[in-house]
Write a structure and sequence with these properties.
The protein is mainly α and 218 residues long. Helices cover 72% and strands 0% of the residues. It folds into two domains: 8-91, Rna Polymerase Sigma Factor, Chain: A (Orthogonal Bundle), CATH 1.10.1740; 115-215, Arc Repressor Mutant, subunit A, CATH 1.10.10.10. It has helices spanning 8-18, 21-43, 46-62, 73-91, 115-132, 137-147, 153-160, 164-191, 195-215.
Amino acid sequence: MKLVKPDLSALWTKICVEDDLKSFEVLYRSLAARLLKFSVYYVSQKEVAEEIVSEIFVKCWENRKDNLHVLNPETYLFVAVKNQSLKHIRKYSNVHLVEIEEQPQSFQFRDSTDPSKELERKELHLKLDQAIDTLPAQAKMVFKLIKEDGMKYKEVAEILDISPRTVQTQLFRAIAKLRIVLSSYYELDHKKNNSSNMANLILILGIMHYFLVFCRQF
């Protein structure tokens, strides 16, 4: 059964206008994990990221009467976390960026009756994870925000403070790089007579390209 996502704008209105604590708790549960992961990308330490995210939510509650102008609370909170994370980095300049822990991929191959299919699915995901790790920092961030968080070009542009055109360019570069990397895996698998695995993965990437390019622009 598909989970219905809460209406964040409606929650935000209840928080700001009605001082609704339950709506605030739902908002926190809906975004905290993603915001934490996003902050970790910048500050590299989970404990620091937790403090940053907690501080942002506390400020949102304390200043809720001044935040009625916010139309997209999700983007607003991502920008706030990014700015606070960068502020932390400037304060502690010896901190460097590291890659965050990957979440499970949004697409899956499921066949509970065949253990070999499950092993194949895990292998495909592992190879895609490894390919994503090879992306440049900005392209990787754009790819994750769109693919994993389901954000649109304009939202990602606002969060990263770049133009929607740059978001599109970085996304195209990410997909092109992934195709190159995965093609090399395909050649290795072909030599091992296991080419169907990588053929499936490259096909998925092509479908993902269509979805990301044409369904996430607006």
